[in-house]
From TrEMBL:
Annotated pathway: Glycolipid biosynthesis; glycosylphosphatidylinositol-anchor biosynthesis
Pfam families listed in its UniProt record: PIG-F
Protein name per UniProt: GPI biosynthesis protein family Pig-F-domain-containing protein
Origin organism lineage: Eukaryota, Fungi, Dikarya, Ascomycota, Pezizomycotina
Membrane-related topology note: Multi-pass membrane protein
Cellular-component GO terms for this entry: endoplasmic reticulum membrane
Species for this entry: Apiospora kogelbergensis
Amino acid sequence: MSAPSGKTVAAGSGQKTAAADDDTICRAIPTLPTPLAQALRHVHPALMLSLFYLRFGALVRDPVSTMLNSLPVVAALQVAYAVICLPAAGSPAAIQSAKKLRPGEKRKPVADGNAPNITSTVVVALGLSIFATVGLQTFFVLFGAPLLTHIPQTTLCSLHLSLLGLFPLFYTHGISTSDWLEVLGARAPFDEAFGGLVGGCVGAWAGAVPIPLDWDREWQKWPITILCGVYGGYVVGKFIGGTIAFGKKFGG
């Protein structure tokens, strides 16, 4: 019996390497196909904007108290959206969504035997979102936020952005180093979670435009317009990421 040729061995090694690369590439994660998930993914943005609109007057009068008091509601809405609409990190649904199918290959039925604990996933994602507030606060300061004043305002604004933009990503990707390198490097493919983060950051940047204008309006106080941009940008980015830009990346 002849020994396998070097080309055959090399080809097999190359296939294994390609398969390993497929498993480590960050991929767009679609919302769950259940009727409830598909309904909530459309209702959720309307609820967020309605909440913001109803509390806008109070936000102008007392930004700190309003942002603080609205955090439990925002967190509850985000948790409900993630649990109902998105696959948790490490779940069979998330693994199947992230796996690239080869030509002619069909997705295997999803088994629930190795499903992660949803409660622990939510708690960890919330904890990471709170911890990430420090980084977002630094981001705001580098882009012009007051360094020594308005610290509560900046902290709470950062926490709102973290709950909107980062919590869904922590819930779906966990602490995967390869995934987060692509997210932070803006190389991740668009889906609702990543689109929401991009939209929230762009909205925060755009929301800073009215602050220095000489209009003498109460709503120009820091960080009211920033927060307006965060919520508006999050909703727009989430919609675009989940529809026309789904699976696409910056620059291609």
